[in-house]
Every structure is written in structure tokens, then in C-alpha cells.
Amino acid sequence: MIRLFVFLFLTILLSGCKIDFNGDLFTADLIEVAKTGKSVNLPMEIRFQVSSCDEDLTAFSNKISTFFIDYKQIECGIGEDFMSYITSNISVPVVNNKKEFEDQNKSLIGYWSGIFENRNKPDVFLIMNLDKLSSLSDFVEKETFQKLSLEEGKFEINLINDIDDAKISIYSSRVDGQPIVFETTFELKKRDKITIESSNITSGHLEKYGWAPLFYFE
């Protein structure tokens, strides 16, 4: 029993602090941003792992708010993994220029919708401000003695089709809970919605390089 307790304690101690992301994307917005160069902000919910909801988390939450746009804490509670999480609403920029996102320096996370290589329809990426990520990682490690890991967390995108028809090719991920290994095309009617959960490989690439592909319009 003592060995089991020590093992469990070390497992909890060594597990990385994580953030879960759940955001909404709309096909019309993605196409408009890619074609016009305008940017828009869309809603996202984040769940940030903390040591306990019983502690005074005001200063911690105030610091976390500096990494996002329109940060508003909703609640703190226990997740399905029995760990404590702060749940908050934020706004996330959708841009057609990754450098513009970095220069604005307002948000840790964003989307990049652009038209490339003689295509006439957008490719869509998750993007990360690596300077902000480094600063956030340093803060989290100082406060919690744990490393922040994007691979530990979950990126979940609700893609909502608000044009007449859309054909979307999605990279390796889970779509509506079903795993796909190869690029798979989905045909969406107006008002259809699919949920895309990125893989650990996508999260790892995002953490290292600041971008990761999600899908593209056919």
C-alpha cells in the first residue's frame, strides 16, 4: 500500500499542468477572412488546471487573463479526471496573416485562415504565440512547480457551416468522437456542425512551431 501511495503521488506530481480549449468556428467567417484580409474574434472556452478550487485564485486568474482577449472566469470545479479546473470564456482572433497575429500580441491562441498555392479556397490552422506561451509556461511552473504541456490538454473545435454547402478535408484527428488517421473529406449542408478534436501530434507541433493544420476547404 505504501508503494502504491508513493507511485500515485509521484504520478500526480509529475503530470503536466494543462489547458483544454473548446472553440466555435464558422465557415462564412473563415472564407471572408481568407479572401478579404479582415480579422474577426470568435468565442472559445478554456479550462485551466489548478491545484485546488479551495484556494484564493484571484491573483492567478488575473495573471492568466493577460494572455487572452475578453477573459472572463465562469467557475472552478472538479473535472472528469478528478483534477481542479478554472473554466473561462475568451475571444480568439481569426486572421489571414500569422505575422499580424504575432504583432498584435494580444492572444495566446488564434486561427489562421488563408488561401495558398494557387488555391481559391482557404486552409485553416491553429496558431500559437510562442512568446506568450513561453511566458505562460514560466509563470505556471513558478506557481505550480509543474510544466505546462499543450499535449496534455485538448483542442476541440466546433465547425459550424453557415453557408449553403461546404466540403471540408480534415487532417488526422477525432471527428464527432470517431478517429480518422488519413485526411478525410466531409460534406456539410447548411447549419450542419462537426466537432474536431486535434491529436497529440497536432498539439505537439503547435507547441514547438506555433502552428498546426486543422482542415481545408475543397
Which keywords apply here?
single chain, 218 residues, alpha+beta, 13-stranded mixed β-sheet, globular
Poorly predicted regions are 4-15
Helix percent band: 25-40%
Largest sheet: 13 strands, mixed
Kindly state the number of beta strands: 13
Could you characterize the architecture of this molecule?
There is one protein chain. The protein is of the alpha+beta class and 218 residues long. It has one domain (16-217). The protein has 6 helices and 13 strands. Strands 1, 2, 3, 4, 5, 6, 7, 8, 9, 10, 11, 12 and 13 form a 13-stranded mixed sheet that branches. Strand 5 and strand 6 form a beta hairpin. The longest helix has 15 residues, at 130-144. It is globular, with a radius of gyration of 18 Å. Residues 4-15 have low confidence and may be disordered.
List the helices and strands and how they pair.
Layout: H1 2-14, E1 19-26, H2 27-36, E2 40-50, H3 58-65, E3 69-78, E4 84-95, H4 98-104, E5 109-114, E6 123-128, H5 130-144, E7 155-160, E8 165-170, E9 173-175, E10 178-180, E11 184-189, E12 193-198, H6 200-209, E13 211-217
Write a concise synopsis of the structure shown.
With 218 residues, the chain is α+β, with helices and mostly antiparallel strands. The chain has helices spanning 2-14, 27-36, 58-65, 98-104, 130-144, 200-209; strands at 19-26, 40-50, 69-78, 84-95, 109-114, 123-128, 155-160, 165-170, 173-175, 178-180, 184-189, 193-198, 211-217.
